[in-house]
Amino acid sequence: MTSEPGARLDDLVLHLAALAGTPTLFNPYADTDPTVDGSDAPAIRRGNLGRYLRAFMDRDEIDLWLGEAPSRFGARRTGVPFSGEGYLADLSSRLAIAPFGIATDEALATRPSSTSRQIWSALPARLPLFWNAVMHHPHRVGTPLRNRTPTRSEITRHREALTLLIAAIRPRRILAIGRVAEGAAAGYDVPITYVRHPAQGGAAQFRAGVAEFGRDAS
User: Fold this and answer.
1) Mean pLDDT, the chain, integer
2) pTM above 0.90?
3) Which of 55, 159, 167, 172 is most buried, most CB within 10 Å of its CB?
């Protein structure tokens, strides 16, 4: 792989696309969901992720917000972590980049998950970089739109992607959203702060943790 940051980010997107999905792990960068996706959906999602990552390429002191995995209505559809279709316009505006593509054919936009709503409501003025311990969408057998927690083997398989990201972006800190993310973030020479995952009654603790994380940076 090449040493230039931009080329490393391109390699990262291709790496994610090359990781084969499974019957319970949907690869948004290579797989198509015929119930909602357009024919070129994987290419659009790859383009979205590449455009998103390159927006951070020349930034200093980047905070990395690390989650567990894409949700059914988030990066599974858009390719951008923590960002369903309803957030794409705001995200491209705040990053001052070209608009993201829409990969689905559904007429009605989906509602954002409670987790993404909590995360977006807690964002600082200086945007962090979003990522996940597993960048493919984990779901249950026979129910492709039902989220599940990623397994240890899946997290291990996606660790190379996280390693490539950290090498290219060089974040100053990692905000680990939940214990799964905290475990995945271990082993890098980057300070880690754990915050409670906002799901299942953890919203208030999540917001308090993010506020403290912000104060620590000042």
Assistant:
1) 91
2) yes
3) 55
Two structure tokens written together for 35: 């119930």
- Percentage above 70 pLDDT, the chain: 95
Strand-pair category, 63-67 with 173-177? parallel
* Token representation of residue 62: 């980047």
Confidence of residue 1 (pLDDT cuts 50, 70, 90): very low
Structure-token match 């969901």, residue found: 33
- What is the 3 state secondary structure string of the chain? CCCCHHHHHHHHHHHHHHCCCECCEECCCCCCCCCCECCCHHHHHHHHHHHHHHCCCCCCCCEEEEECCCCCCCHHHHCCCCCCHHHHHHHHHHHCCCCCCCCECCCCCCCCCHHHHHHHHCCCCCCCEEEECCCCEEEECCEEEEECCCCHHHHHHCHHHHHHHHHHHCCCEEEEECHHHHHHHCCCCCCEEEECCCCCCCHHHHHHHHHHHHHHHC
Distance, in Å, from the CA atom of 186 to the CA atom of 77, rounded to the nearest integer, reads 28
